[in-house]
Amino acid sequence: MSDADRTAAVSRETSETTIDVTLAIDGDGDAAVDTGIGFFDHMLEAFAKHGLFDLTVQCDGDLHIDDHHTVEDVAIVLGEAFVEALGDKRGIVRYADRKVPLDEAVASVVVDVSGRPYFEFSGDFSQPYVGEFTSHMAEHFAMSLAMNAGLTLHAGVEGDNAHHEVEALFKALARSLDDATRVDPRRSDTPSTKGKL
């Protein structure tokens, strides 16, 4: 990986999931996703579209048990892909915050691409499931992404419809990560007084 292309390819295989992910941070929003969970595929496609990330995700998971391992492990691999693609994070904006509405629902995300994983979440999902996707797994996805991408991430949702709440959260994650990972043309160094993130 060179800093110029900011791309990554990461694979992970366990007894629960087999996952291949490719990521281009400076993409066009193109996605090819197959996790076996229709609504999760839709959310990852929305994440790519609204973050302008080119993303492929192929996951074969133990869906005969439930959706937990698939959602969690995809987030782990996606987080690792962000780390690989960002390299030493030279020149990035680093901080961002976004609020995204979807009808009655609003999601907020504040992120620091700090290298120090931390996660806070506020709010609840109004229905327990959206299709075959367990609503609270959206929070777990955000947490697993933060822990594996080295993000300080504060997120929250409010609304009346879990579909809208989850979708707004994925879009807010995308927009904030797009903002925070952009290269600031005024900066040639790593945005930290420590000199390293």
TrEMBL record:
It catalyses: D-erythro-1-(imidazol-4-yl)glycerol 3-phosphate = 3-(imidazol-4-yl)-2-oxopropyl phosphate + H2O. PROSITE patterns: IGP_DEHYDRATASE_1, IGP_DEHYDRATASE_2. Pathway: Amino-acid biosynthesis; L-histidine biosynthesis; L-histidine from 5-phospho-alpha-D-ribose 1-diphosphate: step 6/9. It holds the Pfam family IGPD. Keywords: Amino-acid biosynthesis, Cytoplasm, Histidine biosynthesis, Lyase. Its EC number is 4.2.1.19. The keyword Ribonucleoprotein does not apply. GO terms for molecular function: imidazoleglycerol-phosphate dehydratase activity. It is found in: Cytoplasm. InterPro entries: IGPD_sf (IPR038494), ImidazoleglycerolP_deHydtase (IPR000807), ImidazoleglycerP_deHydtase_CS (IPR020565), Ribosomal_Su5_D2-typ_SF (IPR020568). Its main location: cytoplasm. SUPFAM superfamilies: Ribosomal protein S5 domain 2-like. It comes from the Archaea. HAMAP family: HisB. Belongs to the imidazoleglycerol-phosphate dehydratase family. This is Imidazoleglycerol-phosphate dehydratase. It comes from Haloferax larsenii. The lineage of its organism: Archaea, Methanobacteriati, Methanobacteriota, Stenosarchaea group, Halobacteria. The gene is hisB.
